Amino acid sequence: MSDFEQKVRDTLADPKNQGEMEDADSVGTVGSADCGDMLRMWLKFTEKDGKKVIDKASFQSFGCQTAIAVASMATEMLKGKTAEEASNLNAAELSADLGALPPMKIHCGQLVEGALKNALGEKSDNQEQPQENSSTLSQTISQQNKPSSIKIVKLDLDD
Ligand code: FES
C-alpha cells in the first residue's frame, strides 16, 4: 500500500466534520464534471481578535474516498482562517497532509477547493455549479434528474 493510500485510509477511519451544519453562515456545493461526484461545504464564522474567522466547517459528500479524506483535512485546516486566507488555499494546499495526489485523483482535491470557494461566494473555474436551494446533497442530485450521471468511485486500497 502506498503512503498516499495509507493516509487516505487513516483519515477515513475517523473522518472529521462530516454532516450538515444547521447554523452555518454559508454553504457551497459543486459537482465534478470529470466523475459526477458532488461535495457540499458549510462554513460558520466567528469574531476573533477583531477579525472575522472561520469558526467551523463541515462537509457532506457523494464522492470518492479521496474527496472525503481531503474534505476532512481541509475542514480542520480552515478553522481560524479569515475568508481571504481560506480563499487563497488551493487544492494542493488543502490536501497537503495526504501528500501529492495521484494524477487521476487531483480533481478530488479540486472538488473540495471548489466547494470552499463556492461557500466563500466565489466562482470556481473547474467545477460545475449544481442547482442550489436544496437542503441536502441528495435533493440536489435528485433535482438534476440525472441520477445515472452520479458515479461513486471507490479507491481500491488493497492494491
Ligand atoms: Fe471524483 Fe474523487 S471526486 S473520483
List keywords for this structure.
alpha+beta, 159 residues, 6 helices, Sufe protein. Chain: A, globular, single chain, binds FE2/S2 (inorganic) cluster, three-stranded antiparallel β-sheet
Report on the structure:
α2 (65-77) packs across α5. A hairpin with a 2-residue loop joins β2 and β3 (51-62). The protein has a single domain (3-132), classed as Sufe protein. Chain: A (Alpha-Beta Complex), CATH 3.90.1010.10. A 3-stranded antiparallel beta sheet has the order 1-2-3. Helices cover 34% and strands 18% of the residues. It is built from 6 helices and 3 strands, in the order αβββααααα. It has helices spanning 3-13, 65-77, 83-87, 91-94, 106-119, 137-143; strands at residues 26-31, 38-48, 51-62. It binds FE2/S2 (inorganic) cluster. FE2/S2 (inorganic) cluster is lined by residues 32, 35, 37, 63-64, 66-67, 107-108, 111, 153.
Q: Could you describe the largest sheet, including whether it forms a barrel?
A: 3 strands, antiparallel
- The CATH class assignment is Alpha Beta
Low-confidence stretches: 145-159
Q: What is the CATH architecture annotation?
A: Alpha-Beta Complex
Number of strands: 3
Tally of discrete structural domains: 1
Coarse shape: globular
Bound molecules: FE2/S2 (inorganic) cluster
The radius of gyration is 15 Å
Average pLDDT taken over every residue: 83
Strand order of the largest sheet: 1-2-3
Fraction of helical residues: 25-40%
Question: Secondary-structure map with pairings?
Answer:
Layout: H1 3-13, E1 26-31, E2 38-48, E3 51-62, H2 65-77, H3 83-87, H4 91-94, H5 106-119, H6 137-143
Antiparallel strand pairs: 1-2, 2-3
Helix pairs in contact: 1-2, 2-5
The structure holds FE2/S2 (inorganic) cluster.
